[in-house]
Amino acid sequence: MTRAGTASLVAPAATAGALWLTTYAPGANMNTAAGTAREAGPGGTLTQPVRLPAGYAIVAGTVRGLLLAPAGRPPGTADKLWDPSAARAGQAFAGVIAASPRAIAWHPGARHSAVAVIRPGLAQASLILG
Fold it and tell me: Which residue in 38, 75, 76, 124 has its CB near the most CB atoms, within 10 A?
């Protein structure tokens, strides 16, 4: 077992065997505070810290950035794909149900039995009808 570090929240990274560790100041309200995240590699090596947008937490690392969710999940808010190197958000996804390093699945809401899947970085999503 490799010690990765201490964190307030932990999320899977896109790199096999790696984790994203997010810390918040003691007593901070995660709904409004900006966390600091570092990727812990398989050997425990930590990357340079990145500051997350206030009120967001990492759901998962993807090959195109971090999938972030609102920490308090207010009604109607969407997860967003965020590029930490540019500190900007990309596409937003309402109703995310699963994420992996190479795909994000969400319920588009228009049809109760439909699921949309996108591969980050590709312009087209696949709609799966049930």
Answer: 38
